Amino acid sequence: MSQDIRTPDTGPDGGAPAGRSRKAPKRKRRTGRIILLTLLVLLLAAGGTTYWMYSSLDSNIKAVDVDKALGDDRPQKLPTAGQNLLVLGSDSRAGANAELDGGKVSGARSDTALVVHIPEGRTQAVAISIPRDTLVFRPECQKSDGGTAPGAQRVMFNSVFAQYGPVCVMKTVEKMSGVRLDHYLEIDFAGFKDLVDAIGGVTVDLEEPIKDGSAGLNLAAGPQRLDGTQSLAFVRTRYGVGDGSDLGRIGNQQKFLTALLTEVRKQDLLGSPTKTYKVADSATKALTTDSGLASLTALSEFARSLNGVDPSSMETIMLPVAYDKKDPNRVVAYEPNASRLWKAIREDTSIPAAAKKSPATGG
Prior knowledge:
By secondary structure, the chain is of the alpha+beta class. Helix content is 36%, strand content 20%. The chain has twelve helices and 17 strands. The strands form six sheets. A seven-stranded mixed sheet has the order 1-14-9-2-3-4-15. Strands 5-8 form a two-stranded antiparallel ribbon.
């Protein structure tokens, strides 16, 4: 299988090439999210390892002090005990990720962005996928050289992470949604590959075959066992699904993450300390969190608070979007549906069915 699993479909801002239409995924696909998978693995590891193993895993986790960087100009906290997390899949073209990508693309990207809302009571959860090609208002953000970049309109969402990093992404999401984000969790794609290999692969059931030469994928319809490299190609591919759109890829990612969580739940990790450590080591090396979650203890405590969440009752929704009138290769939040969706999250209430509908279908 080819190791060049890059998706060669991006322009200077990381978007799709001209003329490429989009196809929306199923809007109500119930799925487990990668954050719950990660926390489950960490919880198992913390309960079954010696102190030196614990220390090793703990030191793997990288932290970002987002609270200090975000300051006080933020939405109010939920009036309930509900929690909101921003989960990003980081696809930096450096280090191990550069090797996975053939070293042909530079810079950092975030092709997966989820706002995960856990309502009061912690018995259910919803994850909102934000398409990377969405045009948004980017607020004033700090540059890497210490200077400040003024706010800008019609910025592609994916470019915010690439140019200004995670804190600016959090600022952007809070501005566009009015939702206060309690935590930040970033999963590095190279670590994601190692995690899949550590658990022995993941089986996905494909409704249609996928053939994407640029990603090195040639999969038949039906159940397919994927190793880490194939899994990474599967969640990255655009041309191999639907009409080659980013919106279609979101559905692919949802399918895979469901399968990944199912695989972990099937395995008796506590019965194999060596495998447990290998899985936990891969997971923690892939993690960057806000400072409040940047330890095994904090992550385990948070995981225990989610014990009542049944993955089968979780729902993933794509942010309602419409094709941009000036640039059909981009999308914009579709109103009033998007505002109704964010309002339900802010108020910790049920999301109206109409707020889940999106006109961007890709034909």
